[in-house]
Structure formats: structure tokens, C-alpha cells
């Protein structure tokens, strides 16, 4: 009977075999490892977007949803090639979440992915808000909205705080903008992608304003608030990109501040990654002033943000 496989202390595996000529086959663990899956060339678009998504902190559900959208589009194309029913998908989306949670960044990546998949001809992003759509007199709003849709042709029209279009009531021109958008979403649904973004509760109310809105957004993605560790990761990435680092005391001070500010501010008043970015940018300017006054410019000091450099929102 063959002897069992034994693991040696040096990480090798020894297999002893009973045969006419006994011999021992020795292999390392790496010889038994399964080769990593290689993404076929036709999925290079997904690989590129995955790499960019991987650089984003958190947002696991969103990353999974983007892969599902890719698979949905890709498989539908394969069905079409096989002569199966493959109705074109409506890809209009709704992003729900508080400020600073990465909605605009993700919208740009989606435009890039759709362009590489030939879903959109350009993949560019047109950002808009209420003032860009709502006019001052009857008919003006519809024209402004049509002009924006025209600019977004072949790409994405991203409307932040979209719920503000419905705040003025029946006589407000925002309703005209909504009605115009709904018409173009249907008539030109494969020529551009509309992404509406805003706070979760307000966006739910917004959908109730027009009976045709809800069914036209098959893709709804939630962007949750970042936790403290994720906010610290975001700050660290920003500092690395700018070739700065925090002293130990500064790192602790920022973390303590974030814990405090998240406990006293309501979710609608905390801007997540944007809040962290503001701290870093203000603190970099404060560090520059300190070094100027100290006339100290060695490499380590030029790269180090110290606790007395930190400027928080309530500090101005």
C-alpha cells in the first residue's frame, strides 16, 4: 500500500510509492498551485475598469453591480449572435447616497466602460444640476433640457441632486424638466444614459412625482457612507498621491476628529470623502505657511503634515 503524503518542514511535499523500484517524488507547494484565471482578450474592458474600481475604497456592492451590468450586456450580445431574443437594455440609472461617496467618479467609469463595449459612442460625462435645466419662462426649461440631452449624446447625462427638480410644486418649471427628461429617456434611450443622483429619501420622493419615472430606472445603486477606517484610507491615498504623509500624532488627531464629527452631524450634513479632502487641502496650505515661517525645507519636513498643521471644518 502506498505511503501517505508527508509535508516536510522546508515546505516540500514527499510522496513515497511502493513499487518494484521504490522512489520518492518531491515537489514544492508551488507545483500544486492552480494557475490563475486569465481574462480573455475580449474582456479587456472589464479588466481595465476592475483595476480602476479596485483603487476605490469600499463600495463593494457597487463594484459587484458594475460587473453584473457588464455580464448582462456581454451575454445579451452573445444571445443576439446566436439568434436568440436579445432586446436592447435600458441602462438609465439612479445613484442614491450622501455627498462625497464617489457617485460622480463611478459615473465617469461607467461611461468609459460603455464606450469600450460600444454601448455608447463617446462615453463622456455631462454634469448638470437644477440651474442647468430649469429656465425662467414657459418653454425655456424644455429647450435647456433638450440642449443638455444633445450634449450628452453618445455619453452620460449626470444630474446631481435631481430631487430639486420637484421641490417647487405643480407651477414650478422643474416639473417641465422632468417631463422632458422622461420623453427623451424613451425616445433616445439607446443614444445616451441618464444617471440621476441624490440623497436616498429625497430620490424616493422624486420618483413619485412622475408615474413614468420609476420604471425607466432599472438600475439603482446605493452608495453608503464610509466608516472611519475607510475615511482614513481615502485620506491616506490622497496624501500618497500628493507625496505627503501624516505624523503619528496627526493621524490620531484626524481619526479622533472624524469619530467626533460623524457622531454630531446628521448623515445629510457629512460629506464623506469630500470632507476628508477638504481637511487635507487646508492642512497642506497650513503646513506650507509653517515651513515658510520656520524657513525649514528639508525633504522629510516638506513631506510631513504635523498635528498643528491640521485644519478642520469648524476651524475655518
From TrEMBL:
Answer yes or no on keyword Signal: no
Query: In terms of domain of life, where is this protein from?
Result: Bacteria
Q: What keywords does the record list, in alphabetical order?
A: ATP-binding, Nucleotide-binding
> Which SUPFAM superfamilies does its entry note?
P-loop containing nucleoside triphosphate hydrolases
An example molecular function term from Gene Ontology annotations: ATP hydrolysis activity
Q: Please report the stretch or stretches of sequence annotated as the AAA+ ATPase domain.
A: 89-227
Q: Which InterPro entries match?
A: AAA+_ATPase (IPR003593), AAA_lid_6 (IPR041627), ATPase_AAA_core (IPR003959), CbxX/CfxQ (IPR000641), CbxX/CfxQ_RuBisCO_ESX (IPR050773), P-loop_NTPase (IPR027417), Spore_V_K (IPR014232)
- Keyword Metal-binding part of the UniProt annotation: no
The membrane spanning regions, by residue number, are none
UniProt cross-references to Pfam families, sorted A to Z: AAA, AAA_lid_6
Homology family: Belongs to the CbxX/CfxQ family.
Provide the protein name: Stage V sporulation protein K
Per the UniProt record, the source organism is Neobacillus rhizophilus
**Taxonomic path:** Bacteria, Bacillati, Bacillota, Bacilli, Bacillales
Q: Which gene encodes it?
A: spoVK
Amino acid at each position: 500500500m502506498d505511503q501517505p503524503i508527508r509535508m516536510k518542514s522546508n515546505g516540500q511535499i514527499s510522496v513515497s510509492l511502493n513499487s518494484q523500484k521504490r522512489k520518492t517524488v518531491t515537489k514544492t507547494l508551488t507545483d500544486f498551485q492552480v494557475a490563475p484565471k486569465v481574462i480573455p482578450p475580449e474582456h479587456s474592458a472589464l479588466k481595465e475598469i476592475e483595476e480602476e474600481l479596485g483603487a476605490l475604497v469600499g463600495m463593494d456592492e457597487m463594484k459587484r453591480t458594475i460587473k453584473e451590468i457588464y455580464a448582462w450586456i456581454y451575454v445579451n450580445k452573445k444571445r443576439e449572435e446566436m439568434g436568440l431574443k436579445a432586446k436592447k437594455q435600458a441602462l438609465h440609472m439612479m445613484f442614491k447616497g450622501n455627498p462625497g461617496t464617489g457617485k460622480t467618479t463611478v459615473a465617469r467609469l461607467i461611461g468609459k466602460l460603455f464606450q469600450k463595449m460600444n454601448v455608447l459612442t463617446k462615453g463622456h460625462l455631462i454634469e448638470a444640476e437644477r440651474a442647468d435645466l430649469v429656465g425662467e419662462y414657459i418653454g425655456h426649461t424644455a429647450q435647456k433640457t433638450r440642449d443638455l440631452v444633445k450634449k450628452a449624446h453618445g455619453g452620460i447625462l449626470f444630474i446631481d441632486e435631481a430631487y430639486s427638480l420637484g421641490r417647487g410644486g405643480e407651477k414650478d418649471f422643474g416639473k417641465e424638466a422632468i417631463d422632458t427628461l422622461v420623453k427623451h429617456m424613451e425616445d433616445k434611450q439607446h443614444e445616451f444614459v441618464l444617471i440621476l443622483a441624490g440623497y436616498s429619501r429625497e430620490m424616493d420622493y422624486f420618483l413619485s412625482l412622475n408615474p413614468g419615472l420609476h420604471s425607466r430606472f432599472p438600475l439603482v445603486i446605493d452608495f453608503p457612507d464610509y466608516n472611519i477606517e475607510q475615511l482614513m484610507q481615502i485620506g491616506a491615498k490622497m496624501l500618497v498621491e500628493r507625496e505627503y504623509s501624516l505624523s503619528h500624532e496627526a493621524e490620531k488627531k484626524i481619526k479622533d476628529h472624524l469619530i467626533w464629527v460623524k457622531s454630531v452631524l446628521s448623515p445629510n450634513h457629512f460629506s464623506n470623502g469630500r470632507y476628508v479632502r477638504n481637511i487635507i487641502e487646508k492642512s497642506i496650505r497650513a503646513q506650507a505657511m509653517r515651513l515658510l515661517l520656520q524657513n525649514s525645507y528639508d525633504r522629510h519636513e516638506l513631506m510631513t503634515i504635523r498635528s498643528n498643521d491640521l485644519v478642520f471644518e469648524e476651524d475655518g
